[in-house]
């Protein structure tokens, strides 16, 4: 296996610099940091960040990787994972990918170096070949949570079914024109579109999450004024829904009389808005507990067995915004 000294030679930096990069010290220039990490990945370098005496023993550490810790849903999920893990004598190391694939890969490298016993991850693109290929290289069992990664242990809400629930709810409430605000690859949008098509409303405008609120404001203003049919907006999470509600207020659009808005995740803030936010609730506590228990069973009883693909039902929570 390649050594730090060899990485230093190949990347033309000092060995202490290599050590700082591999141990996560931020006081290294981004260019040098990326050069060292790329070399380490190319040669599959593994740094055991714990004492050598732990080699071959359990660390009782679980790596937890989420996509956006600023989203109250993922903060709540991490808390429930930590509670369930602590009850079984495990601690967690928490990482936030910020929907950046490079961050995701880097943090998975970090948890490998810290020799965690297992990993719970909210992947960015759970259906991608890259995610599946990288998971296979890890030395610890991996469970995906909130997302369905076919062929891997997954504890998730069926987002296609949840999107269909939202479509049915909005049509039943008399809305006739629809916008999805979120990522194009989000399976909630897939279910939303499919159910609307079945109900005879096949035209759904999909608006990607834009980089600035000004862009989103312009998109919403153009969409809202483009038709006279009663409109409704399905936001891919409650944070997007809050942005939409604020923009509609600035545009003088009354919710729900002139436009309906529904979010996803049932974060606490939506319950205290005026109007209170309709949303979709996920069983976070049950999902976290079952995922942790299954992962620990994988750790404590290693061996080949079929992947667990456990789907949880979503619950639509109608409130004043629709």
Cα gyration radius (Å): 22 Å
Determine the structural class based on helices, strands and strand pairing. Answer: alpha/beta
Note the gap between the termini.
59 Å
Number of helical stretches of at least 4 residues: 11
Mean pLDDT: 88
Cross-sheet strand order for the largest sheet: 2-1-3-4-5-11
Q: Which stretches of 5+ consecutive residues score pLDDT under 50?
A: none
According to DSSP, the number of beta strands is: 12
So what's the overall shape?
globular
Main sheet properties? 6 strands, parallel
The SSE order reads HHHEHEHEHEEHEHEHEHEEHEE
DSSP strand (E) fraction? 15-25%
Helix fraction? 40-55%
Describe the structure.
The protein is α/β, with parallel strands linked by helices and 322 residues long. It contains 11 helices and 12 strands. It has helices at 4-11, 15-22, 30-42, 72-87, 101-113, 129-137, 159-172, 187-198, 213-224, 238-250, 284-300, and strands at residues 61-66, 91-96, 118-121, 142-145, 153-157, 177-181, 204-207, 231-235, 260-262, 279-281, 309-312, 315-317. The strands form 3 sheets. A 6-stranded parallel sheet has the order 2-1-3-4-5-11, sandwiched between helices. It has a 4-stranded parallel sheet with strand order 7-6-8-9, sandwiched between helices. A two-stranded antiparallel ribbon has the order 10-12. Helix 4 (72-87) links the parallel strand 1 and strand 2. Helix 1 (4-11) packs across helix 3 and helix 7 (159-172) crosses helix 8 (187-198). The termini are far apart.
């Amino acid at each position: 296996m390649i050594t730090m000294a060899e990485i230093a030679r190949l990347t033309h930096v000092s060995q202490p610099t290599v050590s700082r990069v591999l141990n996560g010290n931020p006081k290294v220039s981004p260019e040098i940091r990326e050069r060292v990490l790329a070399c380490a990945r190319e040669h599959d370098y593994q740094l055991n960040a714990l004492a050598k005496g732990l080699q071959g023993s359990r660390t009782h550490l679980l790596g937890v990787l989420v996509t956006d810790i600023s989203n109250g849903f993922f903060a709540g999920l991490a808390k429930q994972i930590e509670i369930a893990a602590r009850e079984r004598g495990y601690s967690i190391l928490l990482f936030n990918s910020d929907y950046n694939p490079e961050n995701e890969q880097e943090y998975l490298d970090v948890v490998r170096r810290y020799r965690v016993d297992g990993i719970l991850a909210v992947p960015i693109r759970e259906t991608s070949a890259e995610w599946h290929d990288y998971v296979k290289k890890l030395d610890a069992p991996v469970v995906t949570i909130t997302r369905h990664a076919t062929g891997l242990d997954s504890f998730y809400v069926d987002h296609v079914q949840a999107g269909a629930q939202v479509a049915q709810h909005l049509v039943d409430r008399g809305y006739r024109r629809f916008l999805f605000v979120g990522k194009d690859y989000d399976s909630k949008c897939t279910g939303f579109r499919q159910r609307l098509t079945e109900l005879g409303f096949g035209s759904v405008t999909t608006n990607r999450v834009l980089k600035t609120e000004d862009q989103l404001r312009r998109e919403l203003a153009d969409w809202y004024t483009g038709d006279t049919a009663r409109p409704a907006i399905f936001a891919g999470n409650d944070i997007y829904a809050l942005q939409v509600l604020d923009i509609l207020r600035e545009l003088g659009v009354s919710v729900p009389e002139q436009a309906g808005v529904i979010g996803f995740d049932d974060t606490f803030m939506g319950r205290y808005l005026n109007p209170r936010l309709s949303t979709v609730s996920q069983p976070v506590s049950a999902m976290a507990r079952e995922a942790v228990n299954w992962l620990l069973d994988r750790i404590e009883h290693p061996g080949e067995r079929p992947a667990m693909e456990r789907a949880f039902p979503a619950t639509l929570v109608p409130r004043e915004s629709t």
